[in-house]
Design a protein that fits this description.
Blueprint: H1 2-24, E1 26-28, H2 29-36, H3 40-52, E2 56-59, E3 62-65, H4 75-79, H5 83-94, E4 102-105, H6 109-115, E5 125-128, H7 131-140, E6 144-147, E7 151-153, E8 158-160, H8 162-169, E9 173-178, E10 182-184, E11 188-191, H9 194-205, E12 207-213, E13 225-228, E14 235-239, H10 244-252, E15 256-260
Parallel strand pairs: 4-5, 4-9, 5-6, 9-12, 12-14, 14-15
Antiparallel strand pairs: 1-3, 2-3, 7-8, 10-11, 11-13
Helix pairs in contact: 1-3, 2-3, 5-6, 8-9
Length: 266
Amino acid sequence: MAKQTGAMLAQVRQQTIAELVQKMGNITVNELCARFNVSPATIRNDLRSLESRSVIKRTHGGAISTTKMVYELSTVQKEVRNINEKKAIARAALEFIQEGDAIALDSGTTTFELARLLTNIRNLTVVTNDLQIASWLEQNTSVNILLAGGQVRRNFRCTTGQSALEMLSMLHVDKAFIAVNGVSIKSGLTTPTMDMACIKKQMIDSADKVILLADSSKIGRTAFVTYAPVSVLDVMITDEFADSSFVDSLRSTGVSVICSKIEAGR
């Protein structure tokens, strides 16, 4: 147990180091030792681990930022990005939902676009940890809504934590529609924080069918935490601008890939 706790603390420390380097541009080993009250050897191990994942670049005595790492935007910031692509993905995803289904909707702006299309599906149950999705469905549909209660993530309009995980672990859904910050063949499905990674993994584990909703800007990018390999996917829905080599590689693993066409004016 102590070993697992130590590994968990190291992951949390490394995530914070990555965020500090991104914000400051550079940082020294001595500064990090003082901040975390650990030895220079521990910090150097952290930096080696982060560099191996292309999160930072080590320098003599410290580290500098690299643009390869994906950092999490707030929900408000995400809402205005790639909106036409997200709407196209949502329309394609709607085809997988049938009357009487129980589905999980991961927190995200693309899954919210899908939620907005659920007005005419009868006897539908939606499980989500997204406050915005739950609120919109409650006001605009007759969908049966199960909100995974837990700690609210400020600026992200969703819940995380042990109580949310425990609720999700008791449920079984026909399909889970999962969001992502980065996806690649090598690194799998990734997100910037461990708490969100745990929620996403539990949704995947609770579903008969796993459908990834990811616009083309997410392809080939890697965030801090891998929560699943691409092999867990049954379907990936992206947009028409998706990298063709990635699409071919993913299809070769047996995953069905849909490249939804963006409709003018929608």
